[in-house]
Amino acid sequence: MPRNNKRARLEESSEDEYGEETTTRASSSSAAAASSSQRVKLQPDIDNADFTEDLERVVKAVCRYALSCEYKKKTIRREDLTKLLSEPLKKLLNSVLSRAQEKLRHVFGFELVELPNMKEKSNQSQTQRNGGSSSTQTQQDTQQTQQQVSSTQALRRPPGGSSGTYVLRSILKEEYRTPDIVERPSREYQLTGILYVILVLLFINGQSMNTADLNGHMDRLKLTKTIHGVEGIKTREELLSEFQKDNYLRRTKLPDPDTDEPQFTYTWGPRAMVEVGHAGITAFVISFFGDDLEEDTKQDLSRKIFKQAGYVQQQ
Questions:
Q1: Are residues 219 and 171 part of one domain?
Q2: Are strands 264-268 and 209-210 parallel, antiparallel or unpaired?
Q3: 167 and 203, same domain (yes or no)
């Protein structure tokens, strides 16, 4: 009898244990099912027609805003893009930008590109001028840096951290950029020609130039203190200010100048970095030698230009 009672108690204990475990498993399954049901229930709210319509409306608004900023040569700030979004879409800004990017590329021939953080670039340039480790930058390094803002990576954060500002960059093929297809005002052609020459001068001078040296080069190009023939531009100072305003040039005040007048140093601006690039300005220089150059000759010229700019060929 004692053995039977003990066996009965063991069986009862076993039943309670497994019964409790079964109940626990059932509860877990119910909770998982409820959670799954909840997720399934929430998903249609994102995919429903109202949400899709709202998303497309915001994408179009982002495209319109970006195009208007490009027309004015105004940088596009991330916080301004966020203001275009309704509250439910603010957390989906990256998705909205990706959709807007696709529309800008396939419809308008532009892409949204984040500008580099020029504070970081300025620190690197200063180190290079002082003979620091950055002076051993290679031609391959600068080309790889510019490839990071290529069309496949335009919305990714550029080297040096996020700047939170964007511009539109044309992705039209060269054969579609002729005056017969893309008509531009004569003023834009004039300013672009002058700008490219200034960018070349800065690049082959170690990527920076002080006021006196730049003015000397511009005097030889007949771009004197008084400018003639460019609509809305009367003086050289106005010309340089125009390029600074559009973020093609940066001007930094030099400490303790030897003259009474303040002195500045000029470098490339962030828009020049993403729109033109060092490889682009090198190709611009080589184009003056004609189209009949052999590829080896072009590469040799490119190496010499980069070397003049302060880069060394990687062994």
A1: no
A2: antiparallel
A3: no
